[in-house]
């Protein structure tokens, strides 16, 4: 028998799209248009921000997991909804940009409201197979939500 590298195993691929989720950031009048301004308890925020995990034409190594942390906007919020998007542009700033396409929505429960907005939600995107595996975990309760979607590569 021969042992060695299998040349048919793909170890890295090039992403055909930019992938990410929508989020709200603190409103910055130097950067954000007034049309995106939304008022919350803790002040104005900019809606529809495209929070990117991976950019178009990025080389994605097999097994690499991209992770980011998010926090609820409102103190008494018991669930957080993530809308997953892909874009044909590297630098689309907003998810309602015409280059962005909404793929799916995932909602994670975050029941421990006594911590207010100080509740970390860990979001992972795993691009290591032909599916993009998305998982959001509420760190304080361990509750999670996940989904798989087709990961398009070049």
The rough form would be described as: flat
Number of strands: 11
Biggest sheet: strand arrangement:
3-4-2-7-8
Q: What structural category do the secondary elements indicate?
A: mainly beta
Note the total helix count. Answer: 0
* Mean pLDDT over all positions: 90
Task: Provide the gyration radius in Å.
Answer: 18 Å
Give the termini distance in whole angstroms: 34 Å
Largest beta-sheet characterization? 5 strands, antiparallel
Q: What string, H for helix and E for strand, traces the elements in order?
A: EEEEEEEEEEE
> In terms of per-residue confidence, which ranges show pLDDT below 50 for 5 or more consecutive residues?
none
* Helix proportion range: under 10%
Strand content: over 45%
């Amino acid at each position: 028998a021969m042992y060695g590298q299998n040349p048919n195993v793909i170890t890295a691929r090039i992403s055909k799209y930019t992938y990410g989720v929508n989020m709200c950031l603190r409103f910055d009048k130097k950067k954000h248009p007034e049309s995106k301004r939304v008022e919350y308890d803790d002040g104005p925020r900019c809606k529809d921000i495209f929070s990117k995990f991976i950019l178009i034409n990025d080389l994605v190594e097999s097994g690499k997991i991209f992770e980011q942390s998010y926090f609820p906007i409102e103190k008494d919020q018991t669930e957080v909804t993530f809308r997953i998007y892909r874009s044909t542009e590297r630098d689309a700033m907003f998810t309602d940009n015409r280059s962005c396409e909404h793929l799916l929505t995932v909602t994670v429960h975050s029941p421990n409201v006594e911590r207010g907005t100080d509740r970390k939600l860990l979001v992972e995107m795993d691009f290591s197979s032909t599916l993009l595996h998305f998982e959001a975990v509420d760190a304080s309760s361990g509750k999670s939500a996940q989904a798989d979607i087709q990961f398009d590569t070049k």
